[in-house]
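Bench log. Compound arrived from synthesis this morning; before running ITC I wanted a structural hypothesis for how S-adenosylmethionine sits in the protein. Inputs:
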Amino acid sequence: MSFPPSFQLKLRNKHGGQKPPELCELIIKTFTKEGDRVLDPFCGVGGTLFGCYLSKRQGVGIEINKKWIDIYKSVCQIENIKPLKIINGDSKQILKKLDEKKDVKFDFILTDVPFWNMDMVKKSIGRYKKAGEPATIIYSEKSKLSAFNDSKHSSETLKDDWELLIKDVFTECFKLLKPGCYCAVFIGNMYHDGQYHLLNADISRILSKIGFVLKGEIIWYDVSKRLHLYGINFSWIPSLVHQFIMVFRKERTTKISREEVEKIKNENIRRIKQQQEHKLAKHKGILKFINTKI
Ligand SMILES: C[S@@+](CC[C@H](N)C(=O)[O-])C[C@H]1O[C@@H](n2cnc3c(N)ncnc32)[C@H](O)[C@@H]1O
């Protein structure tokens, strides 16, 4: 799906992992209603927060690197938008503090986790061999993203650290999410050191152990990524132009009442009608435009 270069994309591009606000808006609208509270524990330069702004939801973001928060705030200033709540710090600690405040609960979590190893200074894209020469590891360009930790360990230890970060952060997220609500996680699989890694499967395994129930996946084909051909004549190396949005739910432990079911049904009917009216108004606008052109 293609999205417009909105909300000062050039500035947000400094991050390297920014997500289109309009894509976040679509996801947020699917899982919440107007006024609901949305959390992003790894918010970067604010893809989720701009999605909240577009969909009129309340957003709270947490970001460890102040540089990305400053960019989010600069974009808001240029676009004349009131910034949503964004907290500078490590989610592991911040979420615990939020959980201590008993009235803080969220209707939806939308986040984009730091990828294992992707944030390291050099990204290995594989082992290559020229005829008659020994194989060497080739590195791609330096990543723009900040490391998810400062470890100088091997990639195996780094993967353990990454899994621990995911476990710690989502354990806190689980406590802060209201029962019956959803959590959607952007994750891309990756090719590293000659092997393909299913990080979406890792995320599913870790979150399922915490108590989240996997409900499905959305595949986002990022048309801004170019298709590459790697390893011609020697091996087949996938070019990655897609990411997964893994959708989990925190199931209810108690049954909801008949009145509540009715309330949800009526609210859904109201939302569908509102969407249809919106579409109709848009078509009418286009028709009017065509008529005046003719
Ligand atoms: C993939 S990026 C998110 C990009 C975001 N979706 C956007 O549109 O800008 C992940 C972010 O998580 C941040 N991060 C990594 N570890 C963190 C932690 N422990 N607590 C909070 N933020 C963290 C990184 O600095 C990075 O900006």
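What the model suggests: The longest strand covers residues 177-187. The pocket of S-adenosylmethionine is lined by residues 15, 17-19, 42-47, 62-65, 68, 90-92, 112, 114, 145-146, 148, 165 (CB under 6 Å).
ITC booked for Thursday regardless.
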